[in-house]
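Bug #77: duplicate submission created two jobs. Keeping one. Sequence:
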Amino acid sequence: MKQRILTGVVAAAVFLPIVLFGGTPFLILTYLIATIGLYEALKMRNLKLVSIPGFISIALLWIFLLPDQYIDVIEDIGYSKIELALLAVLLFLTYTVAAKNRFSFDDVAFSILATLYVGIGFYYFIETRNAEAGVQFVFYSLFLIWATDSGAYFIGRAYGKRKLWPDISPNKTIEGSIGGVVCAMIVAIIFTFVADVDISIPKLLIVSAVLSVFGQIGDLVESALKRHYDVKDSGQLLPGHGGILDRFDSLLFVLPLLHFLNVL
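Kept job's structure:
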């Protein structure tokens, strides 16, 4: 527990000031974290980042992460993100032939989905930070996830009886999950008093409940991925916490939904 707390304090001391500062340091940090997350995902399937498919995955991820403000870099050479993604698919498939199926069609599918899984969440991390009142919504998302996780843990330990999804995460309970949603809604109420944002309390409560549910789904998705590939943690970068995907699994779902629900 001491190691977990120490890692959390050090990580927050590095991460949060850069999020507050924004700009190029934040963009570089996000690219770095996303690349590590992709490495962790590929490693679960024993795919190497330092390889031809790995380089294609990185290139696709970095293109996908490119903020809207820099989209001219791609458009000036006559392409769109979608077209470059399709080109990456063709390169992946070509490599299956060159590798004589040591890199298989299934590996292609995994590489593409892993890149999208990581890329979508971190792309919207960048877009959320760059939006009007973006800093406030980044911290809202972080506190909402922390409240959901803490509420689910403590309420689950105190009152949990019915398992939520034992085949994926045997310790999670339905009571804990509901408790996490309630705690997230409390965070939403506090947010309306400390943040200067144009959103009604009823709407924010509904949005927070939805985000809390999908944050828990994001956690379960990563748990399912680890269980399928028989790994305990996605990585060892953060002692006591695991890897990048272990820490950002909920955020990868919450941040895109902030935009899909027209909150930003």
